[in-house]
Amino acid sequence: MARARGALDREAPLRPATARAHGGTLQIVIVGAGTVGFDLAIQLQQAGHDIGLVEVDEERCAEISAKLDILVVHGPGGSPGVLERAGIAEARILLAVTSVDEVNILACGLAAQYGVPTRIARIRNRELIRDPEHIDLAPLGVTRAINPEGIVVRVIDQIARIPDVVEVFGYHEGEILIARHVLTAGMPIVGRSLVEILGAAGSGRLLSVLLRRGAEVRIPVGSDVLAPGDDVTTLFPRGSLPKYLDLLGLSGRAARKAVIAGDGLTAIQLGEVLSRWIPDVTLVSRDAAHAERAAAQLGRVEVLYGEPTDRDVLHDVNVAGADLFVGAGRDTPQNVMSALLARAEGAGRVLAVSFEPQNNRLFRNIGVDHVISPRRAVNQEIIDIILRGRGALELHLRDMDFQAVQLQAEPGSPITRAPLIETWKDLKGQAIVGAVVHQGRMLVPGGDTRIEAGDDAIVIASPRAARRIQKLFGSR
């Protein structure tokens, strides 16, 4: 067991006072210190929580102890003694995120016997989660199962469903979306003010929260008239996606053909999901056994065995006619190279799954439209679930000095004492409340909206507004 000095430095300008629950800091035990567990430990520690991290690899324990000021315990996650040394008896949350499903389930089962209320297991075997009516993990101690491949597939599906999107984020497990588009001449919203657009949306519940015009990035006002070249960020519930696309003139541009290149579980799950709404889906796998499994599982998907970086193979699948290409294999260079070759051959949008987050900006700069980081997607999903509304999930908007963050109004907090027109007046131009979730329902707020204790809010903010926002949502 080791406790280290000095946490890793990470830029996190908006760290809300609402990082506490039930009046105190959360005690969280994480089992597994791979990339997912390590990143979660960093984020949760920075959010103000006490972390106990369990790892079976002794060298990995020493490495983490030298970097993070958290409790690191060496030993198997299925050992009651090891879990006790990590603080399981006082824990409110257990995150079992090792690479072995059985270890994760066992850790959750043990945590249940210690009275830990929230027990989340990383589960890769879809047989265990596909049919909850017949296979229920709750009696084994799991309160929530997280499937990494399924999360990545959902992120890709969100991007695929929104033509020409620059960036898209999902909150509340994809129920609330934040999407960015660069406007072009001829779009129905060009030449109209935001007030007009909001009226045209009707019950669509859309709110434009950021506007980039040239070098200037700011929170727009209702009188702003949109022009070609504007980069607009809009927040809306998933159910309003058709209305959003209609306002942009993109309703008739749904993908008709998609090509997936991949040799793992993600590629198969992606083929299953995309084939539900894209009529022509092809999967290319460089692994013969994987291709055989995929063909057996995917009735609506054409499956080919071949090298996705081979131009002849790309010609065979008519990649030039594809609206969408996704490099979704287990090897980052392969995914990026196949996406770039697909682009060179005439494919529409090209996406690549990357296990090298430090290189994602480079991959975008050389021509990949969207780079998906499984590590980031899985961590955001877990943080969203366990700390929803406590301000720990932050999304930094690319190339903008703004971020989106979830907050929960604490009882007695200043934000609950008056309508937004009064509580928010000193933050105009620096931050905007994009959505309020009240009793499970998303509301697009106006000046007369009054946030109640327990309501979740999604706030788009500049770093300089951080301290004042903390005070507004915190009880002290």
From TrEMBL:
Residues 25-146, 255-372 form the RCK N-terminal domain. One of its GO terms (cellular component) is plasma membrane. InterPro entries: K_uptake_TrkA, NAD(P)-bd_dom_sf, RCK_C, RCK_C_sf, RCK_N, Trk_Ktr_HKT_K-transport. Pfam families: TrkA_C, TrkA_N. Residues 166-250, 390-475 form the RCK C-terminal domain. It comes from the Bacteria. Keywords: Ion transport, NAD, Potassium, Potassium transport, Transport. GO terms for molecular function: potassium ion transmembrane transporter activity. NCBIfam families: PRK09496.3-2. This is Trk system potassium uptake protein TrkA. The lineage of its organism: Bacteria, Candidatus Eiseniibacteriota.
